[in-house]
Automatic annotation (TrEMBL):
It holds the Pfam family Bac_luciferase. GO terms for molecular function: monooxygenase activity; oxidoreductase activity, acting on paired donors, with incorporation or reduction of molecular oxygen. The lineage of its organism: Bacteria, Pseudomonadati, Pseudomonadota, Alphaproteobacteria, Rhodobacterales. GO terms for cellular component: cytosol. The keyword Oxidoreductase applies. PANTHER family: BLL6902 PROTEIN, LUCIFERASE-LIKE MONOOXYGENASE. This is Alkanesulfonate monooxygenase SsuD/methylene tetrahydromethanopterin reductase-like flavin-dependent oxidoreductase (Luciferase family). Keywords: Monooxygenase, Oxidoreductase. The keyword S-adenosyl-L-methionine does not apply. Residues 9-256 form the Luciferase-like domain.
Amino acid sequence: MKKIGFLSFGHWSPARGSGTRSGADALLQSIDLAVAAEELGVDGAYVRVHHFARQLGSPFPLLAAMGARTSRIELGTAVIDMRYENPFYMAEDAGSADLIAGGRLQLGISRGSPEQVIDGWRYFGYAPTEGETDADMARRHAEVFLQVIEGEGFAEPNPRPMFANPPGLLRLEPYSEGLRDRIWWGAATDATAVWAAKLGMNLQSSTLKFDETGEPFHIQQAKQIRAYREAWKAAGHTREPRVSVSRSIFALMNDQDRMYFGGSADSDSLGFIEENTRAIFGRSYAAEPDKLVEELAKDEAIAEADTLLLTVPNQLGVDYNAHVLESILTHVAPALGWR
């Protein structure tokens, strides 16, 4: 059995053929898709966060709105780029959204990927300290965020406050109990997966990772997951961790599906997401259901994960994306034992 969610990048563009032509379209359709996905029995609604782009840049108002319109489905991110985040303000936003959703947030955070502008986090007021890289800064922000959402008091109260304070040091409010266990780290390397395990974060591994061994993508990713689980066990955490992988998977059920995805790439690809860092990008899966079942059964990383996030073509509209999800839930997932 697996939890199955969707992952939307929230693209919008006024280009011809786009069903998501504005920022308002992207936001409102994301909420509608979460509602539709919940009705279908999908387990999670996740959004990707990018700044300076025609995508979903500010996740917490959206997550709160999704939470207010749904009652069961998990709501998450994959991922929030911690180079851009004030950990304290983020803790307040996350606590508020989680309370509105009734404790259903699953927040993926990470160092992030190359953005639309050079060093975009500088425009947000952040810069690495001396001797620190931007990746180091992201991990530092993440560690502070994890600490403050634990709910322990740390701030000295004003002796003459505007409102009466509880005794002792003060914590950030609103505090949402249990949120700390629902933070995930998006890891592109084995080393950062191990680091995430030591800090007690769940693991998100996407459709790309740094090419560390030259092996096929799903094998490298499966090894990353195993290394993470070993580090988790060694750290002595008491709860069972969660692991997600994301994939582009399309069941070709009709002519429209074949028109959109019949020619999708069926092999891994290599590229450079940074000047000196080669990455491997996982293949897309697009075929008739019986062929999909045969191909997906060979994916070692999906087998290792407890959660599968299906990337969706959000610009094709809510109805079509609901069809994509329903096709996988109905015609593929049961044959693989995911349902």
